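1st attempt posting a full record on here, be nice pls
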Amino acid sequence: NNPRSFSKIGDCESTPAWFLGDFDRGAGYYRLGEHTELEAVIAQFSGSFLRESLAAGRGFSASSVLTALWANPGQCEAGESPLACEVRVHRPSLAFVMLGTNDRWHQDLFAGQMREILEFLIEAGVVPILATKADNLEGDGSLNATIAQLAYEYDLPLWNYWLAVQPLPGNGLQEDGAHLTWGHNHFDDPAAMRNGWPIRNLTALQA
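the predicted structure (as C-alpha cells):
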C-alpha cells in the first residue's frame, strides 16, 4: 500500500466538500494557527484530501460500503463492493471509517457489517481509524458505543469525534440533528471553531 495515501469510508459528510478537501486546495483555504505540526501531515498525505473516495457518498451506510450495487461502475469491477474498489484503486495505508448515521434503520446489522469492513481492511494491510459520529439519531448512543467497542476489540485507533463536539453550540449539529454546522478551517479563529465542520477537520488531521 501507498504510505502517502489514506481513504475515506462514509456518507456524504465524508466527501471532500465537507471533509478535509481544503488541505489539498492550498494554504489560502485554511489556517493552522498554533497547530503547525500538522503541516507535516498535510505534506505526507497530499493528494488524498481532495480526492473523491469510491467508498464514500450520499446515503452510504455500512451495508452500502459492502454492496456492489453502490459501486462506481466507471471505476469498479463487476461484483466489486465500494470498499474493495477503493482499496484496490487507491492502495491506502490508512482509512477513516466514518459510518453509523445512516445505519440507525438497521442497528441489528451494524456490528456485523462493521466487523466485515474492519477485517477486510486489516487483511488488505490498511489501518482503520474508527470515528464516532456527532449525532445521536438512534436516541440511545448505541451506535457510537458499538464503534468504540469494536475499536477496543480489534485494538484500533478510535477518533472520538462525538466527544470533541460536546462543548460546541448544539454539539456541532444543525437543527436537523444530523448535519454539521459549517465554519472556515481557520483553527486560530474562535468563532469558526464553535462549529462542527472545522473541529472535525482539525481532529481528523490530529488523528
